[in-house]
Design brief:
homodimer, 461 residues, 8-stranded parallel β-barrel, two-stranded antiparallel sheet, disordered N terminus, disordered C terminus, Luciferase-like_dom (chains A, B), oxidoreductase (chains A, B), FMN-dependent oxidoreductase, nitrilotriacetate monooxygenase family (chains A, B), flavoprotein (chains A, B), monooxygenase activity (chains A, B)
């Protein structure tokens, strides 16, 4: 694979949601009792994904206990800690963690991701989220979630600060001259002196530049603000797209926005989510899908749906369609794109609340596809060739079996069709995605000639 | 060893400062080039410490680049990330990380430490610091460091919030009843609804209670505020004490304050720091000590000393004693106890600035002891038996060799004298220190009889 030019091969990310994306997955016999905090479980998943040569694994997150603790495993390890633990038991696969720009300080988070990139040998990625929801806000001294647009303004400044901190050491800053007694060249380490609307940060970071320069920047919001943000900053985008037409439109829109922002559209990898439910026959796959839906306790899911739609639970009849008088997306200050996706899905397919819950239970709005391995490979190939995807975010409904089936049955088919790698050719996450290591924006690369305390440099932005 | 009652055995912690506590350690041939970010180096150190059956290892930290990057390795991995990586390569040794109450949010930090405790099987400890210094403040939007007393007020509330979050899941909350479809018992998970002067946090945490309940709480400040804080919250105290008399006085003072705060004084382990410089003969040890001091570049150290003393660098003559007109401790808003320790040391021994720099270069104010393994074991035994220490914070001047010498030569002597364990008898950090697992203050332990959705309970504080 050569960087940035290989359109033929697709990229695969394993989105690991504790015991599976389906909310009832934990009720199956294979599910470990404390899946969200069980390191042995995650170790097994990471090794399966690496055996399948996947580009990366990914951990979602929000700093809040989501929903009723009775419904599904709500206890989850903090993702940068879990990633670090998984770095120790894998060698090549990329490791992407979600962290919030609304509820962290740039200095701390930049340092943590730089540290994960160091300990993993250049395999770290950061899924940048702004974190919707009043419940999360109330864990951080706020009464309600900041306004959607404000969250994105803060996120943009946060990423700007973080990248400057990651660039605050030149790649050649550490000299380690034991004879001279100079450890790092002071003129190759600099303050960033950031003063903005949301942050003032002097810097420099107290970690030298990491193997990748900085973690791969990932984004997953699909609202207007989210797309603009992705176009400016993201190197990989995870997205929920229910139909091929929607997928193509989204793909083209984000690439167009990236070009408008002055970036090479090839520098962004777009990965729609797919929840593959795999059986030996289509009927067997459907039966598993239906069994999972039967295991949902609808009273939990109805409460959550009512919260998402900003209606009273009594306004939702399990065997009726959604009420007509829902808020518009403009009135939603939370996760706008998810809200619209759910309402559109229900209206388009005229789903009852009970059936909508079943559809959402499998992957929170992502496309569930039940079929044989051949059929899953076909739909992946079809979307890829139709221009809806540079790769896929694989979201197994049940873990570990759903990931195992994908790796053992679907990946070989994709390899046979020459759509997926047969060995890792790179060592860093960006190399897997065919993306370049970012240049340092605060320092020109220099050759000091004598290798010492050299000539200065610090080209400020 | 039985819990809390074993006065005979001492406790040993390895304080791992990148390539060694001596500022010139990195100039020795054994030192790796990027010691602060080199996971292989830290892995080696952790394994040596575990081979020596030490209670724990410890990582200091401040969210700022300390001093001139030329002087010594200033680039360091974030401690909770590094601890997690070290948990993966060790099995028994405790793992203590420093984190600041001034520059973190309680929800995030409580979650990270709970996660480290989960992935390490109950080996996490938190060294609670308030972080002095304007340089650090300016990485977090402040113009200067918050006032000393305010920092401790915030720290106390921070620890209160964190312990409530750690207690927000009863130990028996996760039921995992697959038949019934109830994952955790909602009535055994509760919000904390904290509203204080510094924080408002609803909770609950999104991680279930960890193997130790929560990380071992460690503290290291020795100012008045620091001692009161330790007396209220700390289970282990690291301290810098230059003389045996000072050590005994400190030990008695902290235990007395703990009793006055209504705690069992046996519930706090006090560990003075010692920088052992070990040779086959006393002369060899002294020669190594002097070689290290010769490798110091005094221009770096003088600048730092001037900053600590709040004087202009020109006021310090390398071959003169400290000036008479220094600020009093009351005028210092930074690390008060360190300031006083340095000034007292210089005045007591009438040290020139050059000689003071040499003494501080080895361990930033901790007691350097150069001698044979026998002599090191003798001084440890003497302080222990004289009532100045429950154990020691071992701060090798040079790593890895200083730790290797301690483990291979001093530990066996302490074992021969029946002063130190000959095998790990516990699996958690608290078990190593002979301390009890903390009770959950938000839930009474209950036996629900039928093992299900039981009876309720939540005794609020």
């Amino acid at each position: 694979m050569t960087r940035g030019t290989d359109r033929k091969h697709l990229h695969l990310n394993a989105f690991l949601m504790s015991v599976g994306h389906h909310e009832a997955a934990w009720r199956l016999p294979e599910s470990p009792a404390s899946g969200g905090t069980d390191l042995a479980h995650y170790t097994r998943l990471a090794r399966i994904a690496e055996r399948g040569l996947l580009d990366s694994l990914f951990l979602a997150d929000s700093p809040v206990l989501m929903g009723d603790p009775g419904r599904r495993p709500g206890s989850k390890l903090e993702p940068t800690v879990l990633l670090t633990a998984l770095a120790a038991v894998t060698r090549r696969i990329g490791l992407i963690a979600t962290a919030s720009t609304s509820y962290n300080e740039p200095y701390n988070l930049a340092r943590r991701f730089a540290s994960v990139d160091h300990v993993s040998g250049g395999r770290a990625g950061w899924n940048i989220v702004t974190t919707a929801g009043a419940d999360a806000a109330r864990n951080f001294g706020l009464d309600d979630t900041p306004l959607h647009h404000d969250r994105y303004l803060r996120a943009a400044e946060f990423v700007d600060v973080a990248t400057k901190l990651w660039d605050s050491w030149a790649d050649d800053a550490v000299l380690g001259d034991k004879d001279l007694g100079v450890h790092a060249r002071a003129e190759r380490v600099r303050r960033i002196d950031h003063k903005g609307a949301y942050f003032r940060v002097d810097g420099p970071l107290n970690v030298e530049r990491s193997p990748q320069g900085y973690p791969l920047l990932v984004q997953a919001g699909s609202s207007e603000d989210g797309r603009d943000f992705a176009a400016r900053y993201a190197e990989a985008v995870f997205t929920a797209q229910q139909t091929l037409d929607d997928g193509i439109a989204f793909y083209q829109d984000v690439k167009r926005r990236a070009a408008a922002a002055g970036r090479d559209p090839e520098g962004i990898r777009i990965l729609p989510g797919i929840v593959p439910v795999i059986g030996d026959t289509e009927a067997e796959a459907r039966a598993l899908d239906e069994e999972l839906d039967r295991l949902i306790r609808p009273e939990y899911a109805k409460l959550q749906l009512a919260r998402t739609l900003r209606v009273h639970p009594d306004a939702l009849g399990l065997d009726e369609e959604l009420p007509d008088d829902l808020p518009t997306e403009d009135e939603i200050e939370g996760a706008k794109s998810r809200y619209t996706l759910i309402v559109d899905l229900a209206r388009r397919e005229r789903l009852t609340v009970r059936r909508l819950i079943g559809r959402l239970g499998g992957g929170r709005g992502h496309r569930t596809f039940a079929g044989t391995a051949e059929q899953v490979a076909d739909t992946i190939q079809h979307w890829h060739e139709a221009g809806a995807a540079d790769g896929f975010n694989i979201m197994p409904a049940v873990l570990p079996s759903g990931l195992e089936l994908f790796v053992d049955r679907v990946v070989p088919l994709l390899q046979e069709r020459d759509l997926f790698r047969t060995e890792y050719t790179g060592t860093t996450l960006r190399e897997h995605y065919g993306l370049p290591r970012p240049a340092n924006r605060l320092f020109e690369p220099v050759d000091t000639g004598d290798g010492h305390l050299g000539i200065a440099l610090a080209g400020a932005r």
